[in-house]
Design goal:
Layout (H helix, E strand, L loop, with lengths): L1 E5 L2 H18 L4 E4 L6 H12 L9 E4 L1 E3 L10 H8 L11 E2 L8 H14 L5 E5 L20 E4 L2 H7 L12 E4 L2 H5 L3 E6 L5 H9 L17 E6 L7
This protein binds fructose -6-phosphate.
């Protein structure tokens, strides 16, 4: 896994934006894998800026998001579909029918997972996948112990993950207990992966990622085995490495 060290969050977002723009210029039908959470917000803003300057178009791009909470409809402000609409989709020319997230409100969740996996396969898998890093090493919502060959599936969220995400909800009780997530096997099939990590609170996780062993107990460590994975981290996140 290559490491790109940047000064701060702004530079991290800039670098990630550059890589996505490169990918979109390379192909006329890129398949991008996207994440939610705090980390990619700066990246999405920079992509919107580039789009508004007329430097890029999403008209031939297809996107697949990593995950979605179970039980939240697209109209729920805490759903990841809502987040993506707010932070990126509604500001650029990405056609609605080319922007995919698993449907957390589906009646048959197992079928939804199978269908999502089939859609990714039909699109030829992801060209460039954006990831954030959970404090416990999760990628997507693949919590510690998730098998490395897992495909899109329903997960029981760790208490630590629910607490980390509680800041977006009115109370801890409102944080969903389950989610749908691409599996680690699905993520590893992406041709290129960029893992974005910013801030001192992630420093212990980054240390374990960079210096630790590959282990299912720390899901992101599997990225060490990917041929084209890049960690983009700022000085604060790398402060313990
Ligand atoms: C989000 C996702 C999660 C986050 C991770 C880090 O779609 O899959 O793995 O990337 O929890 O979240 P932030 O960026 O909020 O620290």
């Amino acid at each position: 896994m290559n490491i790109i060290r940047v000064k701060d969050y702004d530079e991290l977002s800039e670098k990630a934006c550059e890589l996505l723009v490169n990918e979109m210029e390379k192909s006329d039908s890129s398949v991008l894998g996207l994440a939610t959470g705090s980390t990619p917000e700066g990246l999405y803003q920079k992509l919107i800026d580039e789009y508004k300057k007329g430097n890029l178009s999403f008209s031939n791009v297809t996107t697949f998001n990593l995950d979605e909470y179970v039980g939240l409809a697209a109209s729920d402000p805490n759903s990841y579909r809502y987040y993506m609409n707010e932070k990126l989709f509604s500001h650029v020319d990405l056609p609605d029918e080319q922007a995919f997230l698993p449907n957390g409100a589906a009646e048959d969740l197992e079928k939804e997972c199978r269908d999502y996996e089939a859609l990714i396969k039909d699109a030829g898998y992801v060209d460039l996948q954006v990831l954030g890093l959970g404090l416990n090493g999760h990628i997507g919502f693949n919590e510690p112990g998730t098998p490395v060959d897992s495909r899109t599936h329903v997960v029981e969220l760790d208490e630590s993950t629910r607490k980390a995400n509680a800041r977006f909800f009115k109370s801890m009780d409102d944080v969903p207990k389950k989610a749908l997530t691409m599996g680690i096997g699905t993520i590893m099939e992406s041709r290129q992966i960029i893992l974005l990590v910013s801030g001192e609170k992630k420093a212990d996780a980054v240390k374990r990622l960079v210096n630790g062993m590959v282990s299912e107990e720390f899901p992101a460590s599997i990225l060490q085995k990917h041929e084209n994975a890049i960690l983009i981290a700022d000085e604060a996140a790398l402060s313990k490495v």
